[in-house]
Every structure is written in structure tokens, then in C-alpha cells.
Amino acid sequence: MRILPAAAGTGIIFRRTDLDGFEIEAVSRNVARVSYATSLMKKGVLISTTEHVLSAFIGMGIDNAIVELDNLELPILDGSARPFVEMIQKVGIRKQRRRRKYLRMLRELELREGNKFIGVYPADAYSVSYAIDFPHPLIGKETFEVALSNGSYLRHIAAARTFGAREDEQKMRNMGLIRGASSENCIVLTRDGIENGPLRFADEFVRHKVLDLVGDLALLGKQILGKVVADRAGHAMHTALVSRILRDKTLWEEVTLSAEEESDERVPSMQAAAGSFA
Ligand SMILES: [Zn+2]
Questions:
Q1: Where does 70-137 have alpha helices with state H?
Q2: Which residues of 132-153 are buried (b: 16+ CB within 10 A; e: fewer)?
Q3: 270 versus 243: which is more confidently predicted?
Q4: Ligand 1 centre distance from Cα of residue 254 (Å)
Q5: How far does residue 257's CA lie from ligand 1's centre (Å)?
Q6: Is the model's pTM score more than 0.85?
Q7: Given this model, what pLDDT does residue 197 score?
């Protein structure tokens, strides 16, 4: 996998080098399948598990990049967004000569599905509040709220790893998922504990949900100005929110910000490559 700089206005594009460079834009209309991970598809070509690298881009304020891969699944690495963040930090970030266009919420939008909830509300900046209630002795109810600015993503979210139950592992492998999964790249839950501690944060589970949400909301194709509140949601509800927002143009407006400093588009300074995976 390689991350390449892209021209201002490009957005994020995935490129399958094993399929003659076929490109899939990281936008809502290409969302294909959402269960344990979010997949994009265009003309039958699939890119799976896009959420962690997209989350890293949003968290670092990267607007334009091309992600090349020679496989249908993004590398899971350590199960968090930190390796992607480090790849980009290593090569640096460059400002581009184009004002960033934000999607600013004007009205609220709420979705419910049984006891699951996700909503987005007008606000001057992007923030996320997430609650989970997971029937496991180490998790239970956890909530986390974060403003995604001033480096808080890097400090509080990027390193939170994905998690899975040992008993679900075979089921997921049968679905063709987590082909690269092992105790090196996710927190493995047993019936009453974890197999591969220690946790990076006491509330690492809910922080990872925030990471996933930020990655899925990247499919808006723009940075959002709004407060997102989620309770026991998942990839399906995250991506449903994105497509509902985009469908109703009375909910938001496209704006540029006046503060010079923060409002230009950004791109990785040069090519960043990651080694071989799974
Ligand atoms: Zn995840």
C-alpha cells in the first residue's frame, strides 16, 4: 500500500494497482457493503475496510490523496489508525492553494433503529459524542466525547484498536473478512477478559468507535462542521447518516472559513509507503 499526494480538489481516491490502476473515489455513492467494516465498490471492483485510513486523513486534515493498493482489503496493521498517521507524519503535510470547502450543518438529522441512534446537529466545529453498551465484563457502558481539532484526534483517537470476540473470528473469516487478523492487529475478547492486554486506553473500545465513525463520515467527501452523537451505532448507521445528509441539501450548506490558517486544503508532502501485510 502507498499513499500519494494528489492535486487540490481531488479528494481521496483508492487505486487498485493490481487492476490496471482502477480508481474508486472515497465517497458515499460508492459504498457497497457495511457489516464489520465499510467497503466501497465501483463497476464490480471492491475496496474493503476503508474506515481506518480515511479516519486518519480526516483526523490529520488531509483533503487530497491517492491510496494505492494491490489487493481488495486495506491492511489492518495494528487495528488502529496510528500506523497511517505515522506514515503521513514521516513524509509531512503540505498546504495547497485552494480553500477547503466544508459541509456545515444547518439543521439536525436523527436516525433510529431499535435502541441504536445516530444524529448530527449544527455546530461551528466537528465534534463526536459516542456511547456503547457492550455485554462484556471489561466494557459495558462507555461514552467518549471529543472535539476533532487541535490535535485531539492524534492524542485520543488514532491509537484505539479494533476489537473482536474470539468466538466471532471463524465466522468473519468465512465471510472473507479479517484475512489479516491476529492478536497483533485487534483486541481479542474472551468471555471474561482480553487475550492480548494491556489496553492502550481504559476506554479503548468506545474510542475505536469514534475512529470508525470519523472514517465513515469521510465519505461525505468534505470535512463536516457539526456535532455528531451516536449511541450503539455501527458502520451501517454511520454510512446511512452520510447518504441521508447528502440526499437532503436543505440540511447543510457548503462554506469556506475565513480563518486563513486552518482553511486551505492539505496533502501529504510526498509518497508514503507501508510495508507488506498479511
Ligand atoms: Zn474499526
A1: 82-91
A2: bebeeebbeebebebebeeeeb
A3: 243
A4: 28
A5: 30
A6: yes
A7: 83
Residue 66's pLDDT band, with cuts at 50, 70 and 90, is very high
Angle between helices 51-60 and 82-91 (to 10 degrees): 50
Query: For residue 42, how far is its CA from the centre of ligand 1 (angstroms)?
Result: 22
Q: Give 29-45 pLDDT, tens digit per residue.
A: 999 977 788 999 999 99
Between the CA of 260 and the centroid of ligand 1 the distance, in Å, is 33
Phi, psi of 144 (to 5 degrees): -150, 135
Helix (H, G, I), strand (E, B) or coil at 52: helix
Active-site amino acid positions: 235
- How many Å apart are CA 141 and CA 59, to the nearest integer? 25
Residue 272's DSSP bridge partners are: 3
Domains of the chain with CATH codes: 2-270 (3.30.1700.10)
pLDDT at 276: 43
Rounded to the nearest whole angstrom, what is the distance from the C-alpha of residue 246 to the centroid of ligand 1?
Answer: 23
pLDDT value at residue 181: 55
